[in-house]
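Propose amino acids for all 996 sites.
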């Protein structure tokens, strides 16, 4: 083939167009005399261009044609050009597998195995493969026959005649036939040994699961028995020799290469144990010594060669132990640790290319499916399958895995297995690494049908599927639901009424009969909803029992389920998002407040399944939502109804986060920093109350005046509201300040301000399903006797002339919360000299503050209350700590900027930093304040109404203890600890506040 120098031939151009990367080399191959008759055949070029690697396919074809005898060569080429089935199969294999091209070059006649397929050839089984291997009499002939069968499997695979699961099954069947042939060769070589023993070969791993790779270790276990009374010892020795010979036949490398390694390391005691054991020896080991992973491995055990009766006896004997493995202590944790160890052992430079063991790889799918099988297979025999895809299908049909999740898992697993097959097929080497070389990636992508940009497409598809697997694997494999189910007694995954009653009594349900009615209502029927509930309930019952009020938890779950049971996302959320089910159980059984908030709008349960759902929303975010809702509403009442709905939702979010953080979950332990928990609650409740007031203010103004009130108006937070330390049951202490707009009469402005305040208070206390927000303005000048609203000038005049020391102290907590921001700042500028007086407080002022505190302790403590347990006014309680800190603020705030804060803990830390109080004393006060605040929050969460003392009822007291981290039976320890911590705080107060 000659061309003008410097110009490319038309063949060169055609080869480029057909996907050849080295057209010059391809031209030289086509110029070979052996290919002379087909060098210009367009059908051949089209077929070569359709392969995974046209260059590789042409090289393989040239080698095959040259290796063929002269009289057979033309028949091969004629058949190749005229018969499309052969052309697709032969060139498809040559373009995908260099190793099979080498085999055809050594054994050119084997191309004829691809000429035509009978019906049995399309999906051959063990019998067909045994027939193909029947003439093998030594390791070399077995290898040759094995490769011939492998050639046909690969042809069906690359042409799409079989899918990835069928290909894997054919490879497992070929392995079965090969093991039988190898054992037959070993028995023929040692007839005396064969006569002494019955030997069964049990396939494990992928071979046992009927899902083998092209190149993989074939995992096996050997079991043997004596033929007669000749003696167990001699029989085992004979069986060991036969087994070892069989392994060598398959594993050793000869002039014809190797088949695959036979690995017996899954046997009892691994490499340290005997290669062959009797059945009784196997059972004794599994009953006494086996580890969790060994039972997981036995899930795929399948007799494949040797004595069929003995193999069946083995599987029948070990199968019950496999399905009882989930009863073992720490079963799920053991499996998870094993999975993590596999990942940890992958070299860092390979983990991103590991298609099997890396994150989002094949092992993630297989482990997740196996774990679900072992946990739920105790009571559902439909899950007893060694095949990953068959088991996944059964899990979906049984409701253990969502249908969509199962379909995505199936799709990803098939894609990853197809990648693994094509990677291994190229050189028939055992590897699970995605190649880095561009030519290898190009071949891989094209072999999977990606032709536009195969390198980019294969990388994108691989990453996408790996991401899907990783996401689903984390939901299915690590979800704590499984751990809880695995710890139940056998048979409880599907609760019978009798078993449920006994279980409920054992768990401490106060009313088992009512609980049984709830269970019956939730789990009866044959619907998918009922099936999922039956799977969830044993887990939820355990979580409810871990609380102080299991009955309330189950009742709340029924109410939520009744409200949401017909919405498809609800049960899917609980089943598929492991944290959601446990979070819901904690929230429903920890007290009254959170369930009450949830049951008013059950759709808020979605918050519990969102990883970000328990984080409090920012004030800006909430304010935008609230003001937008007010703007869309027709009138003030409908506007504030929406605003209060937002407040209820956010209160639920805050209570749920607080309970879950305090209790902890099986995946995330309880929050150890109790101060951080208190701060989160205080900030969150303060923000949502401020936003609620802002929404009510906007609604009240729009209703009567449109967009602009005749006077500038601001709401100043006081007390715990201003200090960002609100609890769940706190009122909102406020001051109202206004300044008439230019040209507006002051009386008119005052009437407008008073009207707005009255309307705000009315709107926020309307009887609805949402909790009211009470506004308390009693800290205003002159208290209840003074005007509800004052102008800024009026405040200035009052504070300059009439203000008392307690009012200056109260102003330490003042902070603008809603309304005109500039007016709020003006108010703060006005009061700063009062609360942080220059040169601090005089002796008279200090003495007056101490007198007021002492009077409050003696007069305001409720009659009959235990002063050692009263969180607000009791010894070392909130009042003690706050007055001590506030005295430091008023004395030193003028010179220490850090003290100029409305927050108690911040001011205490600033005082410590300024060395106004020792670190030890500051820690003592902080600990007492945080504990007292948590007790108040706990009382509200448990009882659904505020309280300053520990509850008297044993169940409520236990619930408070659980919130504070005390196990059942340790209520006395909780009270002792509270008294001890607050006693120490009172000693600091005596010294720091009273100067004792």
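Proposal:
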């Amino acid at each position: 083939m000659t061309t003008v120098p410097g110009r490319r031939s038309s063949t060169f151009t055609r080869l480029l167009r057909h996907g050849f990367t080295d057209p010059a080399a391809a031209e030289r191959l086509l110029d070979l005399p052996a290919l002379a008759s087909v060098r210009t055949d367009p059908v051949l070029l089209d077929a070569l261009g359709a392969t995974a690697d046209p260059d590789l396919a042409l090289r393989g074809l040239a080698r095959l044609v040259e290796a063929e005898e002269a009289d057979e060569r033309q028949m091969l080429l004629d058949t190749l050009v005229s018969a499309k089935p052969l052309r697709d199969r032969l060139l498809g294999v040559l373009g995908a597998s260099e190793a099979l091209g080498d085999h055809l070059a050594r054994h050119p006649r084997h191309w004829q195995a691809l000429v035509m397929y009978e019906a049995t050839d399309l999906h051959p089984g063990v019998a067909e493969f045994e027939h193909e291997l029947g003439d093998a009499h030594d390791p070399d002939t077995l290898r040759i026959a094995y490769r011939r069968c492998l050639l046909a499997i690969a042809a069906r695979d690359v042409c799409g005649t079989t899918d990835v699961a069928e290909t894997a099954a054919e490879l497992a069947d070929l392995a079965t036939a090969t093991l039988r042939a190898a054992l037959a060769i070993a028995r023929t070589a040692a007839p005396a040994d064969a006569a002494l023993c019955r030997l069964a070969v049990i396939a494990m791993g992928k071979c046992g699961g009927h899902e083998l790779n092209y190149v993989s270790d074939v995992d096996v276990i050997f079991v043997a028995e004596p033929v007669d009374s000749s003696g167990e010892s001699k029989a085992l020795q004979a069986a060991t020799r036969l087994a070892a010979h069989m392994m060598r036949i398959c594993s050793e490398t000869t002039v014809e290469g190797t088949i695959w390694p036979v690995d017996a390391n899954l046997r009892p005691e691994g490499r340290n144990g005997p290669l062959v054991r009797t059945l009784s020896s196997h059972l004794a080991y599994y009953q006494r010594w086996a580890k969790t992973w060994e039972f997981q491995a036995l899930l795929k055990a399948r007799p494949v060669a040797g004595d069929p009766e003995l193999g069946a006896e083995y599987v029948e004997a070990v199968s019950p132990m496999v399905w009882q493995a989930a009863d073992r202590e720490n079963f799920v944790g053991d499996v998870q640790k094993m999975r993590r160890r596999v990942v940890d052992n992958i070299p860092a430079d390979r983990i991103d290319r590991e298609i099997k063991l890396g994150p989002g790889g094949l092992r993630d799918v297989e482990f997740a499916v196996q774990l679900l099988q072992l946990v739920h297979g105790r009571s559902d025999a439909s899950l007893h399958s060694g095949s990953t895809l068959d088991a996944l299908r059964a899990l979906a049909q049984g409701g253990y895995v969502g249908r969509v999740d199962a379909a995505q898992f199936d799709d990803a697993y098939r894609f990853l297995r197809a990648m693994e097959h094509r990677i291994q097929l190229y050189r028939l080497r055992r590897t699970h690494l995605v190649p880095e070389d561009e030519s290898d990636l190009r071949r891989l992508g094209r072999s999977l049908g990606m032709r536009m940009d195969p390198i980019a497409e294969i990388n994108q598809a691989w990453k996408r599927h790996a991401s899907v697997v990783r996401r689903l694997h984390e939901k299915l494999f690590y979800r704590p639901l499984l751990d809880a189910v695995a710890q139940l007694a056998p048979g409880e995954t599907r609760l019978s009424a009798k078993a449920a009653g006994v279980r409920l009594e054992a768990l401490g349900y106060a009313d088992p009969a009512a609980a049984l009615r709830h269970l019956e209502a939730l789990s009866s029927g044959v619907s998918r909803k009922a099936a999922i509930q039956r799977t969830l309930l044993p887990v939820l019952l355990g979580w409810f029992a871990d609380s102080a009020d299991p009955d309330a938890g189950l009742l709340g779950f029924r109410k939520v389920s009744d409200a949401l049971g017909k919405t498809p996302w609800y049960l899917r959320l609980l089943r598929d998002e492991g944290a959601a089910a446990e979070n819901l159980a904690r929230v429903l059984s920890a007290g009254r407040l959170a369930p009450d908030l949830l049951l008013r709008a059950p759709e808020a349960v979605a918050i519990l399944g969102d990883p970000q759902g328990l984080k409090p929303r920012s004030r800006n975010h909430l304010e935008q939502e609230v003001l937008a809702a007010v703007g869309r509403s027709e009138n003030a009442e409908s506007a504030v109804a929406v605003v209060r709905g937002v407040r209820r939702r956010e209160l639920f979010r805050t209570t749920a986060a607080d309970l879950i953080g305090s209790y902890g979950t099986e995946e995330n332990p309880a929050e150890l920093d109790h101060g951080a928990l208190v701060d989160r609650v205080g900030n969150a409740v303060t923000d949502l109350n401020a936003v609620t007031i802002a929404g009510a203010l906007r609604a009240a103004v729009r209703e009567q005046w449109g967009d602009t009130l005749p006077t500038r108006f601001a709401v100043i937070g006081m007390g715990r509201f201003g200090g960002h330390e609100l609890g769940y049951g706190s009122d909102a202490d406020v001051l109202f300040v206004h300044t008439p707009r230019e040209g507006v009469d002051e009386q008119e402005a005052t009437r407008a301000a008073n009207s707005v305040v009255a309307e705000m208070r009315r709107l926020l206390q309307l009887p609805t399903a949402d909790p009211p927000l009470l506004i308390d303005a009693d800290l205003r000048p002159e208290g209840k006797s003074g005007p509800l609203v004052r102008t800024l000038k009026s405040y200035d005049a009052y504070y300059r002339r009439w203000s008392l020391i307690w009012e200056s102290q109260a102003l330490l907590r003042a902070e603008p919360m809603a309304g005109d921001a500039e007016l709020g700042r003006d108010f703060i500028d006005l009061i700063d000299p009062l609360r942080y007086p220059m040169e601090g407080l005089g002796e008279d002022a200090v003495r007056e503050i101490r007198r007021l505190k002492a009077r409050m302790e003696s007069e305001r403590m409720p009659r009959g209350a235990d002063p050692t347990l009263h969180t607000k006014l009791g010894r070392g309680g909130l009042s003690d700590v706050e007055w001590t800190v506030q005295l430091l603020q008023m004395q030193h705030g003028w010179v220490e900027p850090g003290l100029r804060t409305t927050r108690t803990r911040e001011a205490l830390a600033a005082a410590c930093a300024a060395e106004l109080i020792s670190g030890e004393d500051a820690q003592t006060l902080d600990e007492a304040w945080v504990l007292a605040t948590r007790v108040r929050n706990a009382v509200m969460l448990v009882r659904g109404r505020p309280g300053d003392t520990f509850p008297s009822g044993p169940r409520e007291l236990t619930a408070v203890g659980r919130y504070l981290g005390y196990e059942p039976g340790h209520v006395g320890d909780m009270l002792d600890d509270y008294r001890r911590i607050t006693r120490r705080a009172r000693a600091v107060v005596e010294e720091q506040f009273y100067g004792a």
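Residues 477-496 have pLDDT under 50 and may be disordered. The CA atoms of residues 481 and 578 lie 6 Å apart.
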